[in-house]
Amino acid sequence: MRRTDRETVRPMTSIAPRTSWPLTAIDRFASQWVIQGTWVFDAPLDAIALKHGLARLLDVYPILCGRMSRDRIERGDEGVPFVVESDMTHAVQDFAPSRVDVTRFGYRCRPALIRRGRAPLLTVTLTQLRDGCVLGICASHTCLDGNGFYSMVRNLSRATTGRDFPQPVFARAPDRSRLRRRTAVARSARDAGWHRLTLLDVLRYAIARPRLLDRSLVARFSPEMLRRCKTALARDSSCERLSTNSALLAHVTRCAGTLLGLDARSRIVVSAAVDQRGRVAGLPESFAGNAVSLAATAPIAARASAADIARSIHTRLEPLLERPSTELESITALTGEVAAHRLPYTPLPGARLLEPGPTLFYTNSFWKFPVYDVDFGDGTHPVRPVRAIPHNLGDPIVLWPAPPSTGGIELYFSGSLARAVARLDSSDDWWNSLYRFDQ
């Protein structure tokens, strides 16, 4: 691979509606991660048009031109690096999900430099292949969560092709409540059943973190399989309003427990990320920043049926998915207070993730995000990605949209689960249990 061009892209206009954006404690915590999205096209993209589109996008995403400065992002004139590279050693067909290290196709800045204000919050890399191209976009988690990131890339495609796109919101509604004392917040966290992290837990996580990034594409579930899974588990769990996401999570969790060989005495916890947009006051659907809460079930017997697991997941998530959700409001407020005081409490039993046979099954679901709603064509000739490869932040279980040509959902495992799958023979009966709703 060789670099052929690098320049800086700035907004088309210099009018700044604001010059800085305050960061929440959650934003600052998220600054340790960089999200890299990778899209593979079987046709070339026009680099000049893409740069013009990026400049137009930055008019309404001025925060992405800024730099971190302690507890704020300050708007600056540094702009966004735009890199064009050429790699004639790869073709589109090489980009199966696990065959190419896609981190090579993004310009990833070190989080430590980003936090010091010495590196950009966003970079764009266009790599020309023998028969297509790869678009790699890296953004600091400081200012965008998964929903905000993939919506931003969809908007980039619209800006590049001259189409209208919604203006994002970055400013939260002002919180006029007074921050409670540290002791009162700690008591509330304990009363809510949150888990205290020890220094040993932090050290174990730091040591294990590189191995958490081991990842494998495990399965592709067809739309028909998803329908059967939801129908069967809604019936067996007596949860008429069971969602497809909860049904699939229950099925995958049951299979994951079997994969790890957890015995009947083991207890597992299932957790998921819940989007706050439209459910928490002051966070509209167009909000682009970090707006996610973590939720976990009560402990469940590791050998419980998928229907029992589905019932537990549904019971935990249903009140959080209401619009508005009083319970999600409470979790969001407590999370902010805990982070502001830097208290060692979390709604997830994080120590379970680091056990030799982990009993915390944390899932991040991206299959409803506009990952494939990206079109750089002119209206009459669409130019859409043939594959979007998920970013990797070490989430143990990821649900990802399959390419529109096939539909359905892709399942990824990371860490211990990925290594356990790698040890399985292709004829192992575990695969039959995983695909049982396809039969």
If you had to describe this structure to a student in words, what would you say it looks like?
- With 439 residues, this protein is an alpha+beta fold.
- It folds into 2 domains: 2-160, Chloramphenicol Acetyltransferase; 208-367 and 408-438, Chloramphenicol acetyltransferase-like domain (Chloramphenicol Acetyltransferase).
- The chain is 31% helix and 21% strand.
- It has 12 helices and 18 strands.
- Strands 10, 11, 12, 13, 15, 17 and 18 form a 7-stranded mixed sheet that branches.
- Strand 6, helix 3 and strand 7 (122-128) form a beta-alpha-beta unit.
- Helix 7 crosses helix 9 (306-317) and helix 8 (244-259) packs across helix 9.
- The longest helix is centred in the middle third of the chain and has 16 residues, at 244-259.
- It is globular, with a radius of gyration of 22 Å.
- The model has no long low-confidence stretch (mean pLDDT 93).
CATH architecture of the largest domain: 2-Layer Sandwich
- Please report which band the strand proportion falls in: under 5%, 5-15%, 15-25%, 25-35%, 35-45% or over 45%: 15-25%
Number of strands: 18
Q: How many angstroms separate the termini?
A: 44 Å
Number of domains as seen in the coordinates: 2
Shape: globular
Oligomer: single chain
Secondary structure category? alpha+beta
The radius of gyration is: 22 Å
Q: In the CATH scheme, what's the topology name of the largest domain?
A: Chloramphenicol Acetyltransferase
CATH superfamily of the largest domain: Chloramphenicol acetyltransferase-like domain
Low-confidence stretches: none
- Listing every helix as H and every strand as E from the N terminus to the C terminus, the arrangement reads EEHEHEEEHEEHHEHEHHEEEHHEEEEEHH
The count of helical stretches stands at 12
- Tell me roughly what share of residues is in helical segments: 25-40%
Mean pLDDT: 93
What's the CATH class of the largest domain, please?
Answer: Alpha Beta
Q: How would a textbook summarize the main sheet?
A: 7 strands, mixed
